[in-house]
Amino acid sequence: MNPKETIDDLTRRFFAVFTTDTDGKVNLDVIHDLFIPQGLIVKNVGPNPEIYNLQQFIEPRARMFEEGRLVDFVEEELSERTEIFGNIAQRFCRYRKSGTMDGAPFETEGMKTIQFINTENGWKISALAWDDEV
């Protein structure tokens, strides 16, 4: 695969991590395969950014799924713009997510910015940030 195809695949796999399967299960540990170990994830919805390392990001989300608080969740990329220079890349994408949280259905769209680096193990996500329409 060329770099763009690899980045497309990484992005598709990232969004798929959060989509529940027919049993309502997700495997959030797959994130470790997609990111560098020092990966950074930032939720920048509202005035106060929430900054996570991978484990800090995974743990509360895993609990929401395991406890059944978040069900029928789907997250998908709607459009993207990717720029690649040598061993670094940047993707800006519009996405939609929907599901049911604590019994209340929701659907929203937003933007994600994803940074990728080419490592000895291939292309990986180094950082991701998002903002939702509110």
From TrEMBL:
It comes from the Bacteria. InterPro entries: NTF2-like_dom_sf (IPR032710). This is Nuclear transport factor 2 family protein. The lineage of its organism: Bacteria, Pseudomonadati, Acidobacteriota, Holophagae, Acanthopleuribacterales.
